[in-house]
Design brief:
Organism: Tachuris rubrigastra
GO molecular function, one term: misfolded protein binding
Radius of gyration: 25 Å
Keywords: Disulfide bond, Repeat, TPR repeat
Protein name: DNJC3 protein
InterPro entries: DnaJ_C3_Co-chaperones, TPR-like_helical_dom_sf, TPR_rpt
Distance between the termini: 81 Å
Number of helices: 11
Structural class: mainly alpha
Order of helices and strands: HHHHHHHHHHH
Number of strands: 0
Shape: elongated
Length: about 230
């Protein structure tokens, strides 16, 4: 304005300054809400700010944290992926994305993201530790599925039992392992054991189609047609 004063530009400048003050106020409120663990309010305020400050990596990371606390991991992934692109060498974002995918049971995507972290910093302790865990689990699952394709059901069962030992803390891996063991037992004509294990899976996931099909096959082996 000092170099080229005119009414139109002054109005524009005043409008932008007012918007800037408003965004700073919203930012303070968002941080306060986050500190008070009112994550829903923080998300709502951050939505308003990010509608204007689209390329702010730190605000996206903060909103991702709120989404994680609110139990909405897929929305957190979206913000963290943007933050990983917006900020150079953002190992922390890749680590968090990998952890979320791992917790959701998507070991392949988890492995892919943690590798991105290690490309940026091969000595990153958290990423390296997670990488070792996911790589081991991934290898066991791939090996078990290969055994199933070859009809080596006993070997597949043994491998899926190893999966449950490798990851006892994240329940989805045990559920998936039991689902696949049930499939192997059914294919191996071990009907009683298959029915028992499939029922266990279906108590956790009543609409699990694979477990329903495999239990049905096991019931057929036992001549339990109504079931």
């Amino acid at each position: 304005l000092k170099s080229n004063p005119n009414n139109n530009e002054e109005k524009e400048a005043q409008t932008q300054l007012a918007k800037s003050d408003e965004l700073q106020r919203l930012h303070s409120q968002a941080l306060s809400a986050y500190q008070q663990e009112d994550y829903e309010a923080a998300i709502s305020l951050l939505d308003e700010i990010l509608a204007v400050c689209v390329w702010d990596a730190e605000l996206r990371e903060l909103r991702a944290e709120c989404y994680i606390k609110e139990g909405e991991p897929s929305k957190a992934i979206s913000d963290l992926k943007a933050a990983a692109k917006l900020k150079n060498d953002n190992t922390e974002a890749f680590y968090k994305i990998s952890r979320i995918y791992y917790q959701l049971g998507d070991h392949e995507l988890s492995l892919s993201e943690v590798r991105e972290c290690l490309k940026l910093d091969q000595d990153h302790k958290q990423c390296f530790s997670l990488y070792k865990q996911v790589k081991k689990l991934n290898k066991q699952i791939e090996s078990a599925e290969e055994f199933i394709r070859e009809g080596r059901y006993e070997d597949a069962i043994s491998k899926y039992e190893s999966v449950m030992k490798t990851e006892p803390e994240v329940p989805i891996y045990a559920t998936r392992a039991k689902e696949r063991i049930c499939h192997c037992l059914s294919k191996n004509q071990q009907a009683t054991e298959a029915i028992k294990l499939c029922t266990e899976v279906l108590q956790l996931e009543p609409t699990n189609v694979n477990a329903l099909k495999d239990r049905a096959e096991a019931y057929l082996l036992e001549d339990l047609y109504e079931e």
